[in-house]
Amino acid sequence: MEFLYTYKTLKLEFPLSEPEKAKFVILGIPFDGTTSFKPGARFGPTLIRHATLNLESYILDYDVDIAELPIADIGDIAVVAGDPRKTADRVRDTLEELKRINPDALPILLGGEHSQTLGAVEALRPASYVVFDAHLDLRDSYEDNPYNHACVARRIGELGVREAMFGIRSGTREEVVYAEENGIPWVHARDYDFDAFVELVKPLPEPVYLSVDVDVFDLSLVPSTGTPEAGGLGFWEVVEAMEWLVENKRIAGFDIMEVGGNELGDITALTAAKLLFHFMGAKGSL
Ligand SMILES: N=C(N)NCCCCNCCCN
Ligand SMILES: [Mn+2]
Ligand SMILES: [Mn+2]
């Protein structure tokens, strides 16, 4: 089928399924209209798809070949340049359309700015939002725009979605107070470990939306993300948390956001592509 707002550039190299029948449905969001520091997130989806060419489809960890899983790639959202709200409306509309034709599909977003996670949450209506991020993203408005990437967790919390945040090492005093007053738990990157993750996530209601803003990783793994911060998590720390979630919670949707770069083969996209394959491998092995 054709979606109203999507188009295709690169695709994954292995045989892909139709979105009507797929278990995993990949959607790119090449938006960087409110990026405040390093540009290039508009190339994120293309860079991630290209980086997958470097990876084996067989995942050692799970004895799963993701080329044998029903995966669809419905292309990229046609963005409204500079307008995060209108672009997120298209993300929401596209995922609503997808859920109508395939209610069992697990959407996977590749971004693109974190602002766009709001559209996915609006469409998929999870009970909880679990996020790996260097930043709290709890500002009420940033650079005069309430739909800026730095406000996305605030907007999602306002929908009544329970939140828990991991790998945090940047925010304003106002954001810390807001988290405290609104009972939003977060774990500093310095204090992060698997037990802290499980303790906070176990009681969360299902289904859960999992968002990975790749700036959660140490910046050596994601040098081209939009707002890089030193002192982040390692690759396997995030993979282990992801494995626990797919085994123990119903997942409404998953995203890998804030991938940027201007060059094929960028380290940032290689990190993101490996995470994508591990997510599908872990989920596909169940
Ligand atoms: N969620 C985010 N990515 N937030 C980062 C916002 C940019 C903070 N700039 C700080 C500039 C201080 N002079
Ligand atoms: Mn961030
Ligand atoms: Mn973020």
UniProtKB/TrEMBL annotation:
PROSITE patterns: ARGINASE_2
GO biological process, one term: putrescine biosynthetic process from arginine, via agmatine
GO molecular function terms listed in the Swiss-Prot or TrEMBL record: agmatinase activity; metal ion binding
One Pfam family here: Arginase
Cofactor: binding details: Binds 2 manganese ions per subunit.
InterPro entries linked to this entry: Agmatinase-rel (IPR005925), Ureohydrolase (IPR006035), Ureohydrolase_dom_sf (IPR023696)
SUPFAM superfamilies from the UniProt entry: Arginase/deacetylase
Keywords recorded for this protein, A-Z: Hydrolase, Manganese, Metal-binding
Cofactor: Mn(2+)
Binding site for Mn(2+): 114, 133, 135, 137, 213, 215
Top-level taxon in the UniProt lineage: Archaea
KW Hydrolase (keyword) present: yes
Entry similarity comment: Belongs to the arginase family. Agmatinase subfamily.
Name assigned to this protein: Agmatinase
Species of origin: Thermococcus thioreducens
